[in-house]
Each structure stands twice: as structure tokens, then as C-alpha cells.
Amino acid sequence: MTVAPESEARPVPEGYVRLTIDGIEVEAPKGELLIRTAERMGITIPRFCDHPLLDPAGACRQCLVEVEMGGRPMPKPQASCTMTVADGMVVKTQQTSPVADKAQQGVMELLLINHPLDCPICDKGGECPLQNQALKHGRAESRFRDTKRTFAKPVPISSQVLLDRERCVLCQRCTRFSKQIAGDPFIELLERGALQQIGTGEQQPFQSYFSGNTIQICPVGALTSAAYRFRSRPFDLVSTPGQCEHCASGCEIRNDWRRGKVTRRLAGDDPEVNEEWICDKGRFAFRYATAGDRITRPLIRENGQLREASWTEALQTAAKGLAEARDAGGVGVLPGGRLTVEDAYSYSKFARIALRTNDIDFRARPHSDEELRFLESAVVGVTPGTGVTYRDLESAPAVLCVTFEPEDESPIVFLQLRKAARQGKTKVFHLGPRTSPGVEKTTVIVHNGGPVRTGELVPCTPGGEAAALRSLPSEVEESLRQPGAVLVVGERAAEVPGLYSEILRAAQRTGARVAWIPRRAGERGAIEAGALPTLLPGGRPVADAAARAEIEQTWGVGSGALPAAVGRDLTGILAATAAGELSGLVVGGVDPNDLPDPALAEQALRRADFVVSLELRASAVTEHADVVLPIAPSAEKSGSYLNWEGRRREFRTTIEGTGALPDCRVLDTLAVEMDADLFTQTPAAAAAELDRIGPNIGERLPGPDEPAATAPVPGPGQAVLATWRQLLDNGSLQAEEPNLAGTARRTVAVLSPRTAQRIELGQAQRIEVRTAKGSIVLPVELAEMPDDVVWLPTDSGTSRVHRALGAGHGSLVDITATTPMSPAATNGHGTTHLDGGRA
Fold first, then answer.
1. For labelling alongside 762, which of 439, 507, 589, 644 has CA 20 to 30 A away?
2. What pTM does this model have?
3. Which residues pair with residue 639 across a beta bridge?
4. Cα separation, 484 vs 718, whole angstroms
């Protein structure tokens, strides 16, 4: 925007128009809304329905201004949120026009006819746009004295969103967000005239992963959170900026807290990443930090039972046990994928200096050697300046998602893909087994004129993605050849032999750029920190003598002190421990049920001579740990995450003075007890040292070059298993969130009608999915997908695929139709049978 003296005559730049607002001549881009031009000048026009990320609606009429065109005033004030700038336009806002001011006061008076003056109990009181604008732009007295209308309240729009209908001013922010941004048109305007209200259709709950955003953008407190309602007042709260710890999106958030507890979370404003949105998991799943089973004191196993101990005793016991295990057979380190960069770096340094091993792997999920070579060659060291960013996704002519379910695995990436598709800029393609809700909402955009197809699903049998990627349909292939196209690959690719290799070959063939998007928040940073068996901090190869010497010098240890042999991956560590080849384990918040073989993990934990667990809450690891060291949740420590772009997301401590220690401090003190110095007493110290090390400036390691595997061929009574984790599932960080759990998607098995017909599935029957290890019984949902394929959620309800089946994406399973048990026995979700047993 340019502001210039009226007397200065000059040509209008191309693509701009010149107009006057409140006597000031300005230049603005063609097509810009009047309200946007005014706010960039510092002129605030009151509004309720307007939102910069939503399409204009003109619903509330609060933003009326006086407009002249060609010297002729328009007959009545106009809504500045729907009118675009024009050359020669003269605009007068409420600051200079009595007409606009009177019109705005009249609209406010009408809005307050029925709006209840319940500010003392309204959750929005103290931060309410209606409250603020009524005081600033409203009249001192109302001419309406009639009794205000009332409704029964609250109406549960979902288990976590409650509606007070009498407060609603029908601004349509919530309905527009749901339809335009999230693609979940479950919430709509119902009835007509004076009876018009927000609601949901019968048997259509507001089951959206993003419903909490409607609470935050509601300008009048009509939509409130079931978890926060009546809990506190805005002026009771202390607000601290933070970063979401749930996935690799890297969302900016705001923690509001009082009395030592986080009370609510709101989306922060970061135009480069999450704009003003977060998913419901990031918004509501924070009470795990105050769960009743949180461990706050160190525990030592004595006579087979864990007892509380002092930090000094626990650290000395852990140091003694680990030293003995290290000298006996060695110790493996499993940090998990939820750590901050600083904590992951501490695990990496602890493994190399205190335990003298490269047996460390953060990948607490299905993984492979091929994936490790892919991370070494195509991911480590990538930054927003050198790799793919959110902006690149938005501007890409085409995006192909391979073994990646964006709505479940990285919700903000899903919103960005949907935004790009909705703007008509991007064709979004998915290579996968079925049209999930996330696939549908990024490939078919519903406008007022009807649905518009902006992409498509390339159907593929699980396990055959590499072969399918090699022979893509011509439309997809040509789209990927356009400059700026992106190939997005998810962590599920590790379960498909040859897929990572084929991704790199496809990128070389088409010129598309590659983006790797893991599911957990700490995975990207753990790579840079060296929490892998083949990489030192900064992406330096373990096998490179010069790289080891560089790290030895930085760490101040003697030449040759670092182990030179490449370490074992997570499965190798567990197998070696189960076989007695490794004597000890250090585990950092790993859930065995997340691992590809939970039975192997439990066998290793039982067989290990000494196990140290650093964790927040009791888990399956706690049952086998010799020493348990409690650590701080993200709200009680500072640090940083790297999101999938490689963008650093720093945050400071929200809740001070709890006494909880970050992993880096615990490991530093434990190392001192083992006569080693890590110098990671604080996250700041760990971050500073990692920054000094810097990225590896040497050549990248070569990428994998494995042959493309074909999909397995099922025999009679068999199917190929497709599976991924849903956003809301059995995850431990969603503990004590019943309202959030109420919006999780149903736990069902999905298969094609022809597959259901083949197993003679009756209308009232369920499906039993079985392997030699056990079975899962679930209700069925039919969908368009390849035949002889069955999809199960990885860890939702009773569908615990790794635990019950010992199988993964692309595995062969047996399927049969079965008569359902009673609802009381199945809890309405299904049953799980382990070790081949039947209920």
C-alpha cells in the first residue's frame, strides 16, 4: 500500500487502483476488499463476520461505510467486507462519516435486541469482540425493551463443542470455516427468518478434526468448549506462546494457564506454518501432563517391586547398573520420536560418550534399512531454504501423496493441500488403497456451484506402491513434470520394500521435489541430533573417520573415543537384547504397541539385565524397568522442535517451578554419575552446542537403490492389509480427554463390496481379521477400493494391529465373516483376540 499527498499526480502502478479513504489517498491492489485496505492503513472498521482467511459473507452488516463512485454517493452505506476497491472511489468510515457511524450504531442496536447480557458468566467475557465493539461503536441506550428470546442451552454440536443459540449473531464464521477450510460441512444454518440458527443435521454430528477452531473464531461466545466452559475468566489466565508437541506440522500455539495448570490452548498466528488454525488434538490434548498416573518421583525396583527413591539414589543406581551392562554386553538406546531437538541430542551424546555405542534409534514405529539410507541422503540437513515448505505446497501445480494420509498424520499439511486445491492452483493426487475422508476433501472441492474435481486417487494395493509409482497414469506423470511439483512421502513407506528408492527415481524422472513428513513431532529433529545408528549430530556419517574426529574435538574427548562401528537399528537392538547379546536398555517414552513387533519388545525388556526408563507416565516399559526417571512434559520445559520442513520451532517454559526435569538434564546428571560429561544441563546449553557443531558440509551419502516390490497376492480367504493411525486414537498423549475422544472416527474395517460378497458378509455381520498371532473383529464399512484388501486403523479402540496381529501395511491376513457379540461384550467397537484365542 502506498500513501501519497493528494496534490502529487503520478500514474497508478499496473494492477493497482487509487482511492481515498477518510481523506487519505491510497493505492491498493485490484480486487482487494475495502476493509483490508482500511486496516492496512491503521483504520479499524468494526466487523463480526469478516475474517481474512474466509470468503466474504456480508452477513453481520457491522462494517458499513459511506462510499462515493464518480462523485456520486451510493444511496445507502455499504458493507466494506464484500466491496472491492475501485479507481476513484471515495470511502468514509465511521471516523469521518456521521452516516456510517449512525448505521453501525443501528446494526449494533439490532444485534443486542435478543443477545443476552450474560457477560459475567459467558466464556467469551473479557475477550469478546461483540462486548468490545458494543462499548466502542454502540449506543449508550437501547430503544428496545421487549423480553429477550431464550433457548434451551447448551446444545452439544459435538462432544467438545457446545452452542448457546441466543448468543449467536449468525455471522456464519463457523459454517464457512467448516465448509471452506476444513471441508466438513456438518454444521450449517437451519430454519429461516427469526428462527434461523446454527445446528447440525440429524445423525450428522460435528465430527471434524478441526472443530475447535470454530470456538476460537466465534466473535460472540455462542460456541464454547466443553472442556473449558466455566473453568476460568480470561483475566485469570497467563498466556504463554508455545509449540504443539503432537505431530510434525510445527503449529504455533498459545498456552493459557493458572494455578500451575494449563487450562486451555488456542491457535497461534503464524502465516508461514499454521496461519490461525490448529487441529483438535493440538487444541484439546494437553491434560496428559496432569494425569493421575503421572510419575513425579524416581522409582527403583527392589525385590521385584518399584519404590520411590531420591534423585541421588536413583541416579546412582541407574549409573551403576548401566555401567555394568555396558561392560558386560552393551546397552541399546531407544529415545522415541517425541523428543525436542535438545533432548534428542542429549540421548545421542549419552549413547556415544557414556555408553560408548552407536546402538541408538529413535524410530519407535515400523522402519527399515532402506528408510535409513533415504533419511541419510534426502532428509538430513534440509531446511526451509533448501527443501519443500508450506508455501511450496500451496503454489505447487501438482502434489502426489504416497503412503501419506495428511488429515490423520499432519493435519495442517492437509489444510494447506485443501487450500491450494480450493484456490484452483494445485492438483492433489493420492497413491493409496482407498478414498478416505482426507483424500476426498483434497480431490473434490464443494463450491456453491457444486463439486469440482481437483485431483484423484490412484488406487493401489498395499505393498504395491513402488510398482504403481513406476507406472503412474499419464495425467499424474505429466502433472509431476511441471516446475514446482512435489512428491510427499510418509513414514508408512518404510513398510513397502523398494518404495523409498522408487520415490527418488520418480523425483529424478519428473523433476518433482521430495518432502518427507513423519507423524511425530520429534522425528525430524532427532535426525539432525544424530539419534540414529549411522549418523552423528549434524548428519555426519558414523563410518567417516574425519566426521568422528570433528565431533570428538567438539565434545572434548580423546581421539578414537567415539565408537566407529555402525550401530543397530531399533529392531536390531531389541533382537540382540532378546538374544542376550545386549545387556541393557535405555528407553525414552516408547510404547511397545507402536513397534512393529510388540512381542519382541516385551521379550527384550524381560531379558535385559538392566533397564532404565525415562518417562512421564506409567507404561508397558515401566513394568520391566529397574530404574524409572521422571521427565518434564513440554509445558514444563523449554526447547525446540524441527517440523517436517526443517523449520526450528522454539518455545519457552509455560509452567515454572514444578521441579520436573527435561531429558537433557536427567541424562547429563546420569552421565556425571558414570564419569562422563555431556554439558547438557539445560536445553539452552544443548542447543548452543548443537549449533556450534553445525550441519555436515561434506557430500551426502548415496540414496537407496532397491528394486520395486510388487503387491502380495492373497490366496483363498485372504486379503492384503492396509493400515495407518488415525489422528484421534489410543495415543497416550490423549489421556483424560473424554470430550476429544468423543469426536474420534468410528473403529471400523473398510473393504470393497466385492470383497464383502466373496466372504459372504451378511448385513448384521462383522469381519474377523486374523493372523497366526491373533485376530480383530470389527464392524464393516464398504467403500470403493481395490478388491481383496482390508483396511484397519492401526491403534483405535480394539483395533491394535501390531499387538493383535503382529502385521503391518502390506501384510497378508485371513478374513472371515462372523456373528457379532453383544454390545455389552464389545463395547460397540469390536473385539481383539490374542495368540489365536477366541473370546
1. 439
2. 0.93
3. 651
4. 41
Mean pLDDT of 375-401: 96
Integer Cα distance of 549 and 269 in angstroms: 43
Cα–Cα distances in angstroms (integers) from residue 831 to residues 326, 770, 771, 802, 819, in the given order: 42, 12, 15, 15, 12
789-793 vs 718-724, strand pairing mode: parallel
Distance of CA 388 to the CA centre of its chain: 17
Distance of CA 704 to the CA centre of its chain: 28
Side chain identity, residue 516 = W
The H or E element that residue 802 is part of is helix 801-805
Q: Are residues 540 and 687 in the same domain?
A: yes
Q: What is the mean pLDDT of residues 444-460?
A: 87
Angle at 311 between CA 305 and CA 314, to 5 degrees: 40
- 571 pLDDT more than 80: yes
What 78-81 contacts at long range (C-beta under 8 Å, 24+ apart), as own/partner pairs, is 80/33, 80/34, 80/35, 80/38, 80/45, 80/47, 81/33, 81/34, 81/35, 81/47, 81/49, 81/50, 81/56, 81/57
Rounded CA gap, 248 and 250, in Å? Answer: 5
**CA neighbor of 619 nearest in space, from 601, 636, 607, 635:** 601
Which stretch, 336-340, 698-702, 739-743, has highest mean pLDDT? 336-340
Q: Specify the pairing of strand 584-588 against strand 610-615.
A: parallel
Query: Quick one: pLDDT at residue 819?
Result: 82
Specify whether 489 is located in the same domain as 536.
no
269/172 same-domain check: yes
CB 774 within 8 A of CB 837: yes
Please tell me the predicted confidence (pLDDT) of residue 5.
Answer: 52
Q: Please give the radius of gyration of the chain, using alpha carbons only, rounded to the nearest integer.
A: 29
pLDDT at residue 203 in the model: 64
Contact between 486 and 513 under an 8 Å Cβ cutoff? The reply is yes
Domain identity same for 628 and 754: no
pLDDT surpassing 90 at residue 449: no
Q: Is the pLDDT of residue 127 over 60?
A: yes
What's the confidence (pLDDT) of residue 140?
80
CA angle 597, 599, 601 (to 5 degrees): 75
Question: Three cell numbers at 47?
Answer: 466487523
Q: What does the mean pLDDT of the chain come to?
A: 92
Compute how many other C-beta atoms are within 10 angstroms of the C-beta atom of residue 91.
Answer: 29
**Does one domain contain both 501 and 533?**
no
Collapse the DSSP code of 161 into the 3-class scheme (helix H, G, I; strand E, B; otherwise coil) and give the result.
strand
379 shares its domain with 499: yes
Same domain, 468 and 408: yes
In this prediction, residue 2 has a pLDDT band, given cuts at 50, 70 and 90, of low
581 Ramachandran zone, left/alpha/beta (phi>0; psi -120 to 50): alpha
Q: Which of 234-238, 514-518, 693-697 has the highest mean pLDDT?
A: 514-518
Three-state SS at 199: strand
% the chain with pLDDT above 90: 84
Query: Is residue 590 within 8 Å of residue 621, measured between CB atoms?
Result: yes
Going by pLDDT thresholds of 50, 70 and 90, the confidence category of residue 823 is very low
For the ranges 129-133, 202-206, 661-665, the lowest mean pLDDT is seen at 202-206
Residue 826 has pLDDT above 50, yes or no: no
Under 8 Å between Cβ of 810 and 462: yes
- Non-local (6+) Cβ contacts of 585 within 8 A are 331, 332, 333, 334, 573, 577, 604, 605, 608, 610, 611, 612
Structurally, the chain folds into a number of domains equal to 5
Q: Which residue carries 494449563 as its cell?
A: 262
Provide the grid cell at 645: 520442513
C-alpha cell recorded at residue 721: 492389509
Together in a domain, 183 and 268: yes
